[in-house]
């Protein structure tokens, strides 16, 4: 979970207990630094607690955490977002619409983040959840959507999971 510190920046503070040693681990996300980076590179996108990220559907989306995961045998970055309006019920944001939002988040948030931190992930996984769910926990009542991408020349290429 992203928690504010006394300097009003954000830090990832969740542990991924469900993975084996060397698996997913939280990446310290400093919201202010990410905000400055994204303002100059991709327009005014803020990734700070309590700040909603703009997506094509207009739904409220907030960055929850960023995890670095070597458990698949290569580096995977996991960007986990809270999107409380997703779901299959009438009036909710369905997967088809949310998939466009996830691609948008990959292009506008992940690409600059990866470049700024000089990371070279084999895959990027973006997940949307209608509520906070700790990584690796089973939450049958939660709605969660996932997409995986590989990054090529500053572009997110969809990968079937």
UniProtKB/TrEMBL annotation:
Pfam family, one: DUF6497
Protein name: Acetolactate synthase
Chain segments carrying region Disordered: 1-21
